[in-house]
Amino acid sequence: MIYSSKARWTDEEERLFAQLLIQCQNNFREVTKHLGTRTYGQVRSHFYNKRKEQRLIIQSISILQLLSFIHI
């Protein structure tokens, strides 16, 4: 199988990725083996990119909550 580092993750890959993270206890090699469509490096990078994205969302929500509290 040819792996493309530029290809977006499909909805099915995202769903399976999330399930496998739990099932494989964040063991990226096991996730890669079961996912079958991405390399180890892609799986690991995707995990850390998603984690960074979630942190930014949480920070944004916290800032908005703080701003709304200040204006009350």
TrEMBL record:
SUPFAM superfamilies: Homeodomain-like. It comes from the Eukaryota. Residues 4-55 form the SANT domain. Pfam families: Myb_DNA-binding (PF00249). Residues 1-55 form the HTH myb-type domain. Coiled coil: none annotated. This is SANT/Myb domain.
